[in-house]
Write a structure and sequence with these properties.
Elements lengths: L4 H9 L4 E5 L2 E4 H17 L7 E5 L4 H12 L3 E4 L6 H11 L3 E4 L4 H10 L4 E3 L7 H4 L17 E7 L7 E6 H14 L7 E4 L6 H14 L2 E4 L5 H10 L4 E4 L1 H7 L5 H4 L5 E4 L6 H11 L3 E7 L4 E5 L12 E2 L4 E5 L12 E6 L6 E2 L3 H6 L1 E2 L2 E10 L5 E6 L4 E3 L2 E3 L1 H9 L4 E11 L3 E10 L7 H11 L8 E4 L13 H10 L3
Parallel strand pairs: 1-10, 3-4, 3-5, 4-7, 5-6, 9-10, 9-11, 11-12, 12-13, 25-26
Antiparallel strand pairs: 1-2, 7-8, 8-18, 13-14, 14-15, 16-17, 17-20, 19-20, 20-21, 22-23, 24-25
Helix pairs in contact: 1-2, 1-8, 2-3, 4-5, 7-8
Length: 499
């Protein structure tokens, strides 16, 4: 089994069908498949072996996707992480996964150099790197067969944070990705006539698995953009006759401010929102202006995206839907006992889409499971019709504008500032970004740290989206009798205060 054979199937059935679109550049499925095959052959000729890790650290592009599928065709493991990470963050990821090759943007070459010197010959694929992308594809193999792998072999490693704030790689097998790709394509009724617009980062599970793999599986077209830009977004909808929109709540909020929205989206048949819960008033306003529902689902990196889906048949606003095919969920108490319908508890999941675990993190892998049930860290409940409602998160992760931020990582940076005695980072509601990263600071004795100075300090060591939007100086932070910090109490107090 190899998930890359979905690309070969699409190229066989729909060879001239547009597969990838980026600006004015269009590649049909025959061209997409041929280019990925050239990458696979080029990597193998340079010593790549099945199961070897290959990293991708670059913005969205057609070349990113060609390289990614080339890695899969070669039987290797695609390791993906954000190109917005700082040098220190990138170094930590590379040290953990030890890639043989790295696909990187030119501006990241300096970040890769130190690792490559230590890594016994890792090569960087980049226009100005060790191996230009065009050179990698130079020789077209007369015959090439995609390398067969076991269904349980790792296909991709997506880096995500954890309770410690340290990035860790969630290992997704070929079977994990295939299960989710099929579920997404089935529930969204995807066909070869669809054109899906993707400006969300391809290193993230939503864009990589939910959007890309399901689109390739169904033979549809994928419109790629490096990031969100309103004019570019609207132009692509018209130019490429987009039928499916994928976005996060903040984008839908911005779009609602436009005039003639229904006319602008005339060809769109389907809208999906991910990353953060969508406010019900936004869903209703969107329906009123466009006549379209905003569909939501529940999933995470460790579930290769889809766990539940709020589907066509009965769309329930406020819910994330019912369980997807072959996936099971149960609501558990703190001891792992199943709770009856309607009661709130931790959402636990099992199914063919669930991760094998975290690369080089056996303790965190064990902690994430009870038997074969994955512990989501989220609190929810099921109604009488089996619809899942998310209540809160046990984990403290903040989702801001579709990006995941792990507070402990930000707190460690703040603690390195000499004027900070104690701190806590939480997510507070924000109408545009879903949540805003917010830091509460207990200053060192006799100190009065300037928020702008704290922000500048964070920017030196963190990606921009992780830097707190607001800094509040407080006398103390709420704790329980055992001295444990109560972040929920922080959120409650400051939400009540209207901040």
């Amino acid at each position: 089994m190899n998930i890359a054979t979905n690309l070969e199937t699409a190229a066989r059935f729909f060879p001239q069908q547009p597969a990838l679109m980026e600006g004015d550049r269009v590649a049909c499925y025959a061209e997409f498949n041929d280019a990925a095959t050239r990458v696979a052959a080029g990597l193998i000729s340079r010593g790549l072996q099945p199961g070897d890790p290959v990293a991708l650290c670059a913005p969205n592009s057609i070349n990113w996707l060609v390289f990614y599928f080339g890695v899969l065709k070669a039987g290797a493991v695609a390791v993906t992480f954000s190109h917005l990470l700082t040098s220190a963050e990138i170094a930590a990821v590379l040290q953990d996964c030890q890639p043989r090759f790295i696909f990187a943007a030119d501006e990241k070459l300096a970040d890769m150099a130190a690792f490559c010197l230590r890594s016994n010959g890792a090569q960087v694929v980049s226009p100005k790197g060790d191996l230009p992308f065009e050179a990698l594809q130079a020789r077209a193999p007369e015959e090439f067969s995609t390398i067969d792998r076991s269904r349980d072999d790792t296909a991709a490693i997506l880096y995500t944070g954890g309770t410690t704030g340290t990035p860790k790689g969630a290992m997704l097998s070929h079977a994990n990705i295939q299960a989710s790709a099929f579920n997404v394509a089935f529930y969204e009724r995807s066909t070869q006539l669809d054109r899906a617009l993707c400006f969300l980062p391809l290193n993230h599970v939503f864009a990589q698995i939910h959007i890309t793999h399901s689109t390739v599986l169904s033979g549809g077209g994928l419109v790629i953009q490096p990031s969100f830009d309103m004019d570019r977004f609207l132009n692509a909808i018209e130019l490429h006759r987009v039928t499916k929109l994928y976005a996060v709540p903040t984008i839908y909020i911005r779009l609602l401010s436009l005039g003639n929205l229904k006319e602008r989206l005339a060809g769109v048949r389907y809208c999906f929102s991910a990353a953060a819960s969508m406010a019900t008033e936004i869903v209703r306003a969107w329906k009123k202006q466009t006549g379209l529902d905003i569909h939501e689902a529940y999933g995470m990196t460790e579930s290769a995206s889809m766990v539940t889906y709020n589907h066509y048949h009965r769309h329930v606003i406020g819910s994330v839907g019912t369980v997807a095919s072959l996936v099971e969920i149960k609501i558990c108490d703190v001891n792992g006992r199943a709770l009856p319908q309607g009661q709130q508890g931790e959402i636990c999941i099992r199914g063919p889409n669930i991760t094998k675990g975290y690369l080089n993190h056996p303790d965190e892998t064990r902690a994430a499971f009870r038997g074969d049930w994955f512990r989501s860290g989220d609190i929810g409940y099921l109604d009488e019709d089996g619809y899942l409602f998310i209540v809160d998160r046990l984990k403290d992760m903040v989702i801001t504008g579709g990006e995941n931020v792990y507070p402990r990582e930000v707190e460690e940076v703040l603690y390195s500032h000499p004027l900070v005695q104690e701190c806590a980072v939480v997510g507070l509601p924000d109408p545009e970004y879903g949540e805003k990263v917010t830091a509460f600071i207990v200053p060192a004795p006799s100190a009065e740290p300037d928020p702008q100075e704290l922000r500048a300090h964070c920017k030196k060591m963190l990606a921009g989206f992780k830097v707190p939007k607001r800094f509040y100086l407080v006398d103390e932070l709420p704790k329980n009798n055992a001295g444990k910090l109560l972040k929920r109490e922080i959120r409650r107090q400051w939400r009540d205060a209207g901040l």
